TrEMBL record:
Keywords: Membrane, Transmembrane, Transmembrane helix
Coiled-coil region: none
Name the record gives this protein: Permeases of the major facilitator superfamily
Transmembrane spans: 25-49, 55-77, 84-105, 172-191, 203-225, 231-251
Organism: Methylobacterium tardum
Length: 258
């Protein structure tokens, strides 16, 4: 199977799985699953296969910086969503991503460990802010027929765009673009349109929780890729990511005290 074919098949399959999980178990679970490296891991694997393992390992540093920009967009959306309309909140959140990426990658250039130190408290703040901002409970509605095809098309288009630009951008900028929330943002937009602000903020909170797993994935990729064989490097990285997300899922399933 060619890489293009893999991108076209894998991305919509993951989007379908996460969207189905969100419909069955709620927007928070959908956001948590979408926060996993479901598209950023394939992008990293594509970069290693198409460019080189060293390219993908260097791109992982940019991805940790880009994850800070993604978290800035979550913070902006959690603050703006209860106060603004759908389009305005999303545009301001995307603006926060661009500004955060420009500062972290273009101006500060913190490197792997300082970027990690910036990301961790920012992600924790995004989880807390999206929880307190969700004033209204999420409502559940039956999605229209075009809903799932639109989600699949949006996610697939974004992953093809990001991976297609990589050879022209180099490892740094390619890494910054890799953690773009390809699945999360369509989920957020559709949740807001169909189920209200509360559902959208649940997706944001789940995505911010899942970002801890994405961070673990990229740190492991940078440390392992090129030092061990690629299959082992990505297997360990994905396992570390899952280990960071599992406690959030278990905490959600634990019954609340009366």
């Amino acid at each position: 199977m060619s890489l293009i074919a893999a991108k076209i098949i894998v991305t919509p399959t993951l989007m379908w799985a996460v969207s189905s999980a969100a419909r069955r178990w709620g927007s928070l679970v959908g956001g948590l699953l979408s926060g996993l490296p479901l598209t950023s891991a394939p992008i990293s694997i594509y970069l290693a296969a198409e460019q080189s393992e060293r390219f993908a390992a260097d791109a992982a540093v940019g991805s940790v910086e880009g994850l800070g920009a993604v978290t800035a967009s979550y913070l902006a959306y959690a603050f703006c969503a209860p106060r603004m309309g759908t389009v305005a909140a999303i545009l301001l959140a995307l603006g926060a991503f661009v500004l955060g990426g420009a500062l972290l990658h273009g101006v500060i250039q913190p490197g792997l460990w300082l970027a990690t130190a910036i990301d961790l408290p920012a992600m924790a703040l995004a989880v807390a802010l999206s929880r307190t901002a969700a004033e209204a409970p999420a409502r559940r509605s039956r999605p229209p027929r075009w809903d799932m095809p639109a989600r699949l098309a949006a996610a697939t288009s974004l992953v093809l765009l990001v991976s297609g630009l990589a050879p022209h951008l180099g490892p740094g900028l390619s890494g910054v673009l890799a953690p773009v929330p390809i699945i999360s943002w369509p989920l957020i937009a559709f949740a807001r349109a169909q189920d209200g602000v509360g559902a959208a903020l649940d997706v944001v909170r789940g995505s911010a929780q899942g970002a801890f797993g994405v961070l673990a994935f990229y740190v492991c990729v940078h440390l392992l890729l090129g030092r061990v064989d690629p299959v082992t490097a990505y297997a360990v990285s994905i396992a570390a990511s899952a280990a960071c997300v599992l406690p959030w899922l278990l905490a959600r399933r634990r019954p609340r005290a009366a």
